[in-house]
# Entry
Amino acid sequence: GIQVEQSPPDLILQEGANSTLRCNFSDSVNNLQWFHQNPWGQLINLFYIPSGTKQNGRLSATTVATERYSLLYISSSQTTDSGVYFCAVYAYNTDKLIFGTGTRLQVFP
Amino acid sequence: EPEVTQTPSHQVTQMGQEVILRCVPISNHLYFYWYRQILGQKVEFLVSFYNNEISEKSEIFDDQFSVERPDGSNFTLKIRSTKLEDSAMYFCASTLMGGTDADTQYFGPGTRLTVL
# Structure
């Protein structure tokens, strides 16, 4: 089945710093979503981005489907950005999201 | 903004007992899902459900698990005889379009199941 790998596994930042999280996938996909899992365990939708670039405030994402990767950019990080960031993909001919391994982000004041 | 809701938020049960986890998907959505996340691990797919039928299920979703849409709003996951290894966070999700036209999946806040 399709493999979804994320890097780095852990990231520690000081407030105000910028960061880039990467998601690689091993096969063609029909859809890709980015989530933020907050300290209470809730999965918050960030982006639905099968291809191209989207921006939402301090966050933006780019997916290059032909090269099988997606990037999540966080600018001017805040302590509330802390948590785990997951990417998840739909492979063709499936009806499920396959989650990556996650990047744990800690932002300190 | 419409959201997926789940009850209870936390359930503690004894090994061998039956549990039912409940979800209310977004009202106009047609595709429904259950996922689980064992503590510290990634989120894993359990089952997808469309038109009152299971459309896909994972190896985890064995005979101990079942899903049902008993009415027009609820979507339930039943575990018949819980095991210690069933302890996890269970997420319900829904979307308007699934399959090859898959749209954004919206996740509920989760039910944390603890099996003692």
About this structure: The mean pLDDT of chain B is 93. Residues 5-109 of chain B form a domain with the Immunoglobulin-like fold (CATH 2.60.40.10). The two ends of chain B are 37 Å apart (CA to CA). Chain B has no helices and eleven strands.
